[in-house]
């Protein structure tokens, strides 16, 4: 579109590309619902200068190859300039060269392994210095530095386990006991030998980068093995309220997750957003860290569009970089130097109601450092419900 078409009030068509089916569909559906909720809010308040945002949405079916195929379709057939989507890093990696080839813009609302920059991506999920650093400090301080690493068999778990291993090994008495990987569709049977090894090695904590439906299988296998999270918990970056809804509250209780967002954040902005979500989708959606990022990034895009002279990436990006928004987690900001987002690290302990009790949180947003040049805890503080 041209600046002239913008003045005519033509709709703004955006690509929406998440997985509504497949092994990562629980998170994918929540990301889609966060995106659609934001679009509804923007359009009901007059759109972008009177222009309606119209989503062109496809189901990527948890397949990186399908993500790539649909990205090409959105750009060449549907003529969109901006795509909101992807969950697994393998899907982002599949989409990235296509986005760059056509010089389009991808908003990526998922935590990831870091060590990446693209002029064509806005990263709104946590980088390693906004979740891994804090989780390593918390777990080693409270439980010890002998860690067992387990993840799904693709790029994000490999890189995240490498980072966590490096962080833990900086602590006194540290030891990386084992590093194991399971298929993306792993079930209870796939964790049997792993639970036996954990019983033999007795780590201080287990670090999980298992994703999708396999997350429930891991936690259920842990519970069936009779392990106690009070002495040997699972710590994760990827286990959210959505995965807890699959495994059962009693199975998840006592385990830890590091994330910028939990449903239990006690703020007017968060409560209001959750209320609007339930009004729009009922109990169908389970809000989580990826849902929240998908929600606020759409609002940041709309705000940038209101200030831009046109719909092309060169016209949008100057308004987007450095912009801020009052998200449910707090006031976030897109860093102009690396396209990542300033976020609020938190540690949550899963409770018996399917929620997280926040036991540590940053008092100020932590600047994104995707290459881990510096490690800051962001004025790390104990929350009201302290670790027992």
The number of helical elements comes to 13
Number of distinct beta strands: 16
Residue share in helix: 25-40%
Largest sheet: 8 strands, mixed
What is the CATH level 1 assignment of the largest domain?
Alpha Beta
Cα shape: globular
Radius of gyration from the alpha-carbon trace, in angstroms: 20 Å
Structural class call reads alpha/beta
Q: How many domains make up the coordinates?
A: 2
CATH homologous superfamily caption of the largest domain? Response regulator
Would you write up a description of this structure?
It is a single chain. The longest helix has 20 residues, at 25-44. Helix 2 packs parallel to helix 12 (289-307), helix 5 crosses helix 6 and helix 8 (214-224) packs across helix 9 (241-247). The protein has 2 domains: 3-126 and 265-342, Response regulator (Rossmann fold), CATH 3.40.50.2300; 129-264 and 345-382, Rossmann fold (3-Layer(aba) Sandwich), CATH 3.40.50.2300. Strand 14 (346-350) and strand 15 (356-362) form a beta hairpin. The protein contains 13 helices and 16 strands. The chain has 388 residues and is of the alpha/beta class. The protein starts with a helix and ends in a 6-residue tail after the last strand. The strands form 3 sheets. Strands 7-6-8-9-10-14-15-16 form an 8-stranded mixed beta sheet, sandwiched between helices. Strands 2-1-3-4-5 form a 5-stranded parallel beta sheet, sandwiched between helices. A 3-stranded antiparallel beta sheet has the order 11-12-13, covered by helices on one side.
């Amino acid at each position: 579109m041209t600046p002239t078409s913008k003045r005519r009030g033509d709709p703004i068509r955006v690509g929406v590309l998440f997985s509504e089916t497949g092994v990562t569909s629980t998170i994918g559906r929540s990301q889609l619902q966060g995106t659609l909720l934001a679009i509804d809010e923007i359009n009901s308040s007059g759109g972008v200068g009177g222009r309606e945002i119209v989503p062109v949405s496809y189901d990527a079916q948890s397949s990186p190859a399908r993500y790539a195929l649909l990205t090409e379709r959105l750009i060449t057939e549907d003529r969109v300039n901006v795509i909101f989507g992807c969950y697994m890093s393998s899907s982002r990696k599949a989409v990235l060269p296509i986005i760059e080839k056509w010089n389009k813009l991808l908003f990526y609302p998922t935590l990831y392994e870091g060590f990446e920059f693209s002029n064509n991506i806005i990263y709104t999920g946590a980088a390693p210095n906004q979740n891994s650093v804090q989780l390593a400090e918390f777990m080693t301080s409270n439980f010890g530095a002998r860690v067992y690493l387990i993840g799904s068999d693709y790029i994000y778990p490999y890189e995240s386990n490498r980072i966590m291993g490096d962080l833990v090994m900086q602590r006194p008495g540290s030891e990386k006991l084992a590093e194991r990987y399971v298929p993306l569709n792993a079930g209870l049977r796939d964790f049997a030998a792993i639970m036996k090894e954990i019983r033999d090695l007795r780590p201080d904590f287990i670090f999980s980068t298992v994703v999708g439906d396999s997350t429930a299988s891991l936690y259920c296998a842990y519970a069936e093995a009779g392990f106690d999270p009070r002495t040997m918990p699972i710590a994760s970056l990827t286990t959210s309220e959505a995965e807890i809804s699959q495994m059962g509250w009693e199975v998840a209780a006592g385990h830890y997750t590091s994330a910028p967002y939990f449903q239990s954040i006690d703020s007017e902005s968060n409560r209001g957003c959750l209320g609007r979500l339930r009004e729009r989708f009922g109990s169908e959606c389970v809000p989580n860290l990826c849902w929240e990022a998908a929600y606020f990034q759409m609002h940041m895009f709309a705000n940038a569009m209101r200030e831009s002279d046109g719909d092309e990436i060169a016209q949008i990006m100057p308004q987007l970089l450095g912009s801020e928004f009052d998200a449910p987690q707090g006031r976030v900001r897109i860093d102009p130097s690396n396209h990542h987002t300033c976020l609020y690290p938190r540690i949550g302990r899963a409770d018996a109601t399917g929620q997280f009790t926040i036991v540590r949180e940053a008092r100020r947003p932590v600047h994104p450092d995707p290459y881990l040049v510096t490690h800051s805890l962001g004025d790390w503080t104990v929350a009201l419900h302290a670790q027992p």
